Amino acid sequence: MNDDATGSDWRPADPPPAASGCPAHTDAVPLSGLEYQQSPATVYQELRRAHGPVAPVLLDGDVPAWLVLSYPEVSFVTSHDDLFARDSRRWNQWENIPADWPLLPFVGYQPSVLFTEGAEHQRRAGVITEALEGVDQFELGVNCRRIADELIDAFAGSGEAELMSAYAHPLAMRAAVEMCGMAAHSTDTDDLVRDLRISLDTAEGEDPVAAYVRVQERIQRLVEDKREGPGADVVSRMLSHPEGLSDDAIVQDLISVVAAAQQPTANWICNTLRLLLTDDRFALNVSGGRVSVGEALTEVLWLDTPTQNFIGRWAVRDTLLGGRRIKAGDCLVLGLAAANTDPQIWPDGHVGAEGNGAHLSFSNGEHRCPYPAPLLADVIARTAVETLMERLPDVVLSVEPEDLVWRPSIWMRGLTSLPVEFTPTLR
Ligand code: HEM
After folding, report:
1. Same domain, 338 and 385
2. How close is the Cα of 62 to the center of ligand 1, in Å?
């Protein structure tokens, strides 16, 4: 019997050196560096060739982990939470993690849906799923159109804009907080949007921890307000759900929902705009589109997916995966971008052909992005892209495509800025 956890027959052309039980193996690759920004697909291809489907890598501070690079292995890991689970307290490296470790915000255990397991996770994820199912997609589209128009109005007269900060980020954030029942125009909403941005992005130069505390306090107040006066929103639906989650649990899960929604949706919008503005198939007729916005959105999920790598899963017990001996408590990083471009599923090299939606950009299994969320993200991203193209039909990049800079992150794939110019318009 094949005792490889995946049961996969596939082996790399050059098998990895004698499978090690420790990712801190001498051939471990630092999971950082410029190549991950400029040409990630080539990096993943080389890693796969050199190490097979599961590569030993070093996270910040040379902390060892495994990067799962192939489609079957990522699918296997995400669909076997009995073997590869989410509670990071299992990690066998905690004694080597300093208090100021940069990845702590993502792997430090919190009592939220993200880190719960088994029946408790099903309960928490079930409440989120049903609350999100209550969002009327038509209404969401109308709200996003209004948010998009307001943001465009602010820069349309100037003939130029930086679309990451002036459009994609605030649009995704406002759409998410409005779904939660916060007023469109209030100082509270503006403060929350600002603090969420700071808490999620250490590059903002302000204190992310203090901002996170303010986010928590604001969400707590929102939950109290909705207990007093419920409405037709995600928070009120979570509060009235028959599972009867505590307010503390709901606050934790709401922060996860808003944070999980904002960054990837903003980057999805921006990566799609970049594709539309730089690729000849789209650039010829950007507003009418020979290739539709829908196709561009799907192509981005295959080729420039926002959540490039996701940390992660922790091995419940010793096992084998992709020819590697994984020890109980080892950390596995889900290589979602690498899996999407795995040559095993695209033998002819034509990645993402014909709008195929079987990518792993929303992950898979018990902890996948909860079912209605990808549909809602699609409404937000599609409305954002279509509105911009419709309002600014002659929009073009104001720098050369090769001068666009990807963020220095191996986790989120997005641009540092997307500067554009267009004929100034007044509404
Ligand atoms: C309305 C927008 C969105 C909402 C409300 C949302 C919500 C969530 C939530 C609550 C989780 C945690 C699930 C759990 O641990 O059980 C999650 C996970 C995730 N989401 Fe989303 N999300 C949104 C958009 C997106 C987008 C645009 C992407 C990427 C294209 C994305 C990719 C992911 C991934 C990769 C995970 C991790 C799954 C795992 O652990 O395997 N999400 N999302």
Report:
1. no
2. 28
